[in-house]
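Entry:
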Amino acid sequence: MRILLAEDDRALVMFLTRGMEADGHRVRAACDGAEALEAFRNEMPDLTILDLNLPVLDGEQVLVEMRALDPQLPVLVLTGRQEVKIRIRCLDLGADDLMVKPFSLHELRARCRALLRRKREARLTLRAGDLEVDRLDHTARRAGEPISLTNKEFALLEHLMLNRGQCISRVDLLDAVWNMEPAQTTNIVDVYVNYLRRKLKDPPPGFLLRTVRGQGYLIPSEAEMHLPVPLLTSGQAGLAGPPASGAVTHSLPLGISEPT
């Protein structure tokens, strides 16, 4: 799941990010209200964790704007303010839940899971052919058989499934899955696509996970599933076409090894 964390306390951001990523979520942090609102508008996250005491735009202002943009996406408010009237006002403004600092990380994670389960019209189960992805349990199955995925492999597969039928560039995947700047030269996307293909038993050129040469990767729409898969030239199996210009110079970034 994609979680937006609007919090200006950097130490708390690091703490919460580790906790959420341990559950397999992708976290996008925003350190002020204006940045949080922009991230919400552009990404429409599955869940927002919103601190009230934000610079630039106060958390209550941000909450009002978020609810104007989308009244359904879950928002959990964090606050150090003890006044009951403030908590009541936040709930009346559209917050789905509220926690007062200090709080238990275990309880916060449980509340996030509860909100995601109740999310209206949530795409919690994604399907493509005989592949099924459960976004809440972070599990994947193909033809009923479970597939063991690391958190990053699952995040990559989830992002491609959420954008099924659309070609996603390596630059966009770096940003969405790894929170890496495109200037950071790495072919980690290609490497992890290979990991997925191996675990999905979907060898190149790929029935489920396909390559658009020179552009990126996609999981085809239902209609496109029945179209012929373009063949790759010899020696390109697994990478499916040249990488984007300037995007590949190393096998993996320092400190990253192949998952088991």
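The longest helix spans residues 105-118.
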